[in-house]
């Protein structure tokens, strides 16, 4: 059996191989990246290692501006999230803000539990606990633990989208240039992202329009409440 390699050294050698592959595949890839960024999407997601936004969207470096935190909690007073939103929306002028939760979220499970996580984590998860108490009847009626965690993750996205829709920078961009806000859930068990229908397009009849986001090397199509991806030639 081969000796297990140090994970960091493995990651560095993997990066070296990746950089070589990308440069070989497209010699202009890194010079173009180095010239600046104009991402079309701001992604607000969970820090969970199984939810790497650019990878699961099938997009490339330069396509997605990102802020991730534990359980993708959007608090209006969190200066970190607010600064990312301000820069992405007012300066980079992204076309879409995507808040994405996920199945099997540890933060969701912790918020559903009555035991303390410890340290600063209980404080961080307070907004999610508030979501739990506000929807106690519905959540308690769900007998399956996994299904209950999925439901609170959806409720968390809905609550987060409401905070986003109340953000003044986002409101101005919606009015002035048609910025779109989406609330989604990533299903780790199948790799697919579902649009939950909250945000600027909430309530619209499915299938009425396609919204295409063109990345540098791939395009993302929001169609009837679902996102799909196609590689550009
Ligand atoms: Zn999570």
TrEMBL record:
This is Carbonic anhydrase. It comes from Diplogelasinospora grovesii. Reversible hydration of carbon dioxide. Its cofactor is Zn(2+). Keywords: Lyase, Metal-binding, Zinc. Zn(2+) binds at residues 46, 48, 102, 105. GO terms for molecular function: carbonate dehydratase activity; zinc ion binding. Binds 1 zinc ion per subunit. GO terms for cellular component: cytoplasm. Its EC number is 4.2.1.1. Belongs to the beta-class carbonic anhydrase family. SUPFAM superfamilies: beta-carbonic anhydrase, cab (SSF53056). One of its GO terms (biological process) is cellular response to carbon dioxide. It catalyses: hydrogencarbonate + H(+) = CO2 + H2O. Pfam families: Pro_CA.
